[in-house]
Amino acid sequence: MSTSRPTFVGIGAPRCGTTWLHVQLQSHPDIWLPPLKELHFFDAASRYTSPGTFQIANPLRRLVAPGRWGGRSTATALGQVVRRALRGDTEAAAWWMRVATATYDDSFYPRLFPGAGYRATGEFTPAYSLLDTDDIRRIHAVNPDMRLIFMARDPIERAWSSLRYNVGRGRLALDLTDGPVVVEHLKAEAVRRGTGIVRGEFRQTIEAYLEVFRPDQLLVGFFDAIAQDPHGILADLCAHLGVPGFAFPKAGEAINAAAKESDIPAAVRDHFASVYEEQNAFMADRFGSYALDWARRGSARSDRPATVRCDRVKF
Questions:
Q1: Region of 245 on the Ramachandran plot (φ > 0 left; ψ -120 to 50 alpha; else beta)
Q2: Which of 117, 247, 278, 286 is the one with CA 20 to 30 A from 175?
Q3: pLDDT tens across 33-78, in order?
Q4: Beta strand pairing status for 218-222 and 307-309?
Q5: What pTM did the predictor assign?
Q6: DSSP secondary-structure letter at 112?
Q7: Interacting residues of 89 by C-beta distance below 8 A, sequence separation 6+
């Protein structure tokens, strides 16, 4: 069986194991993912805090426009064409050439995926967890039967991991050992769309997508299962995507590893606990599984279901 349009999208959440999933699924012979992990196609509009990869539609305008996704993006894409061609990876070189020269509109999006040879094709962009209804409908228009993957994690651990990641990458100047200062920063940032607080609102994301897609199209996976049951979560994903099972030889490897919750200063943990109390209750009530451990602040149990499909949940 082959496909002429993408069949799945990973919609979030950030710092919840989507990089690990991307790496694992790339090894499956019946699944294709693009050379660039996060396309940011549907969140290119300036109202989002995305990198705007596909923000400038016209290739000539991109060539002369300033900024990261102006002429520099075209140069970057063409550089990838050369590098991939020199390595003999003609498929990736052709993909980057399309990115460099195409006019970007919704009819272009399917061209980012192969039209034959794979049972499932798709991408992971965790920032799609912030899409508004109009942009979620754009995904639906590409493929009304699109399978959706949403990875969830203890919101406290996810938010702390995000902070550690951004400080470590030099994106944020903040002394993470000073709990009160961190809390003040979080309170100041909480009003901004796209901050770590907003990205942890799993209920908002899930309900927004279920306004457009059928519940059976959305699979919620748990970050905890990557450590506790990696082959179980991958088997569930294969079933969800309609591909045969696979051994996944790198399933036990840590990818993009995050900080442990024990590193969180008490003031920050208390702040997050207050902020995410409702989220934890919602996830525990609707999905159970590892979310029960989040709400109780207990250690993860290995007998929890690795994923839950939304048509098996009462809303």
A1: beta
A2: 278
A3: 999 999 999 999 888 888 878 888 998 888 877 765 555 578 888 8
A4: antiparallel
A5: 0.89
A6: G
A7: none
